[in-house]
Amino acid sequence: MLVEHIWTANDYRNFNYLIACPDTGEALAIDPLDHVKCLARAKEKGWTIRQILNTHEHGDHTGGNGPVIAATGAKLLAHKNAKSRIPGIDRGLSAGDVIKVGRSVELECLDTPGHTMSHICLLSRTDQPGLFCGDTLFNAGAGNCHSGGHPESLYATFATQLAKLPDATRVYPGHDYIANNLRFTLDREPDNKAAALLLKDAEKQDSNHPIVTTLGREKEFNTFFRLHSPSVIKRLREAFPDLPEKPDPKTVFLKLRELRNKW
Ligand SMILES: [Zn+2]
Ligand SMILES: [Zn+2]
């Protein structure tokens, strides 16, 4: 599996991706908002974009569909329940569906509601898996839920799906928010050494060649995976004095999401 990160350098800080089969050069474009850059990169690599995957229905993920389809004739894939919100879907996706790219690449669809209720993440079936996670999981953060999502569903997605994937899974999110998210981690957990260390690199990162984390590393500095951390809970009880001494992980997640909305 070949992966190209495409940094849009727009205000929303979107990442687009191309995934290609090394044998055939056939490619899948994930959320190709910056269609000019995506098409140029495919050309440069000698790849043919045959499919587009929209992780979810927001305009900063679907906005490049038209031009990429016009240029390549690619088929459009998205969550089966997004059909009323994304025009022109050729294939509606459900949990467990497999997307083939060329001869050698297989990507499994995870149904990951929370940021929106029709959000797909892709998990590659490779020796070291890769997770293309749209706006569900960010480096050191989690998607917001105020444009058609639900925080309780996002918690369920984190707890029952993402947290159970192998620690070696590489994380490919839909936006570059790493530095700001690490600052939130340090606000919530000032003694998190992994976050402090990574922030130094994140602050000077070239988003054309971004830091790629793994789920195992995310568990060290992503507050939304650190629901049992005594310092996270201690700080949270300062903000929410009514919280019990040992709050359940779902309550911790929801309170962190609430604080992040205003942070
Ligand atoms: Zn979104
Ligand atoms: Zn987005």
Task: Give an overview of the whole structure.
Helix 1 runs parallel beside helix 3. It is built from 9 helices and 13 strands. It is an alpha/beta fold and 263 residues long. Strands 1-2-3-4-5-6 form a 6-stranded mixed β-sheet, with helices on one face. The chain has a 5-stranded mixed β-sheet with strand order 7-8-9-10-13, with no helix packed on it. A two-stranded antiparallel ribbon has the order 11-12. A hairpin with a 3-residue loop joins strand 7 and strand 8. The termini are far apart. Helices cover 33% and strands 23% of the residues. One zinc ion is lined by residues 56, 58, 115, 135.
Give a brief outline of the structure.
It is built from nine helices and 13 strands.
Spell the H/E element sequence.
EEEHEHHEEEEEEEEHEHHHHH
- The strand line-up of the biggest sheet is 1-2-3-4-5-6
| Total DSSP helices | 9
Q: Give the cofactors and ligands.
A: zinc ion
Tell me the span between the first and last alpha carbons.
Answer: 38 Å
What does the largest sheet look like?
Answer: 6 strands, mixed
Helix-strand category? alpha/beta
Rg over CA atoms, rounded to whole Å, is 18 Å
| Beta-strand content estimate | 15-25%
Q: Helix content range of the residues, please?
A: 25-40%
Find the count of extended strands (DSSP E, 2+ residues): 13
Uncertain regions: pLDDT < 50 for 5+ in a row? none
What best-fitting shape do the alpha-carbon axes yield?
A: globular
What average pLDDT do the residues reach?
Answer: 98
